[in-house]
Amino acid sequence: MKQPVDDLPLVSIALCTYNGAMFLEQQLESLVNQTYQHIEIVVVDDCSTDNTVQILQCYAKQYSYIRLFVNEENLGLSKNFEKALSLCVGEFIAISDQDDVWEKDKIAVLMDRIGDHTLIYAKSAIIDEHGISIHKTSMDHSRPCYGSDPRWITLINFIWGHTTLFKRTLLSTYFPLPPDTSYDHYLGLHALNYGSVTYIDRILVQHRRHQGNATHPSLSKVKSKRGRLNELEQWLDVILSVPDIRYHSFFQQMRNKVNHAKTKSFSLKLFLFLMRNRHVLYYASTKNFFSKVNSMRKLVLDI
């Protein structure tokens, strides 16, 4: 017998918008047609200048479970998501991008599989601005991770926020989001440190890539060695600022070696540290041994 809607845990969908009118209606349709019906959609618009707000107001009038908030000033991507997450009241939370398309059973599937884990993530297929597949997925360079080791996410952010569902209790340690920090990278860190992560090998999102995508900087996109090391040092500072972070001495040792490497043309100490700990630092990577060594070289040499 089908479970009554009111007996199901409430799932909050956090949707942040900014000048997203081009693709927004298609995403909203995929959200309001979820087969899991006990949901609320928390939308926070970050001062859009197109007709995004008008589209949202139209949907909010039609669907009472859409809660719409419009910022008085622009907060930026990460802080806007922080606000949206803080407004969610559901026992579980899912993050939505404004230009994706969800499979209709996304929430139902994730809720069925999360179990006692803190966070579950899935696979997304990459589409272009016309909705056509480019034959890539979010897991092309990552292997599934099951467990609770925060060291896994030091060098590789393998958890894409738009594929996740997590327990709201995770937010008790999440705020405030550190400046210039990717919200999903930080979310993954907390899930691995305070709980456990699981994965389901199903495509549940069509993730759209186009010229207007909002993105975060990554180590791989920073060209100079010093720039890469500065980015890594800042991320390690964020990790070390997390209360009761596990493997604290590991992260502190790595940060010290990264700081030392910035003054050297080649840092053997950092290279050997990366080599010794490659099984945890590259745990989520599908790269072969030689590709991992090349990634290490980029951190210790000007190449």
How many E-type strands?
Answer: 9
State the distance separating the first and last CA atoms: 62 Å
Radius of gyration based on Cα positions: 20 Å
Beta-strand level of the residues, as a percent range? 15-25%
Q: If you average the pLDDT, what whole number results? A: 93
Unreliable segments (pLDDT under 50, ≥5 consecutive)? 215-220
Q: What can you see in these coordinates?
A:
This protein is of the alpha/beta class and 303 residues long. Helix content is 37%, strand content 18%. It has ten helices and nine strands. It has helices at residues 21-32, 52-62, 77-87, 106-114, 183-194, 225-241, 248-261, 268-276, 278-281, 289-300; strands spanning 11-17, 39-45, 66-70, 92-96, 101-102, 119-127, 133-137, 165-167, 197-208. Strands 1, 2, 3, 4, 5, 6, 7, 8 and 9 form a nine-stranded mixed β-sheet that branches. Helix 1 links the parallel strand 1 and strand 2 (39-45). Helix 7 packs antiparallel against helix 8 (268-276). It is globular, with a radius of gyration of 20 Å.
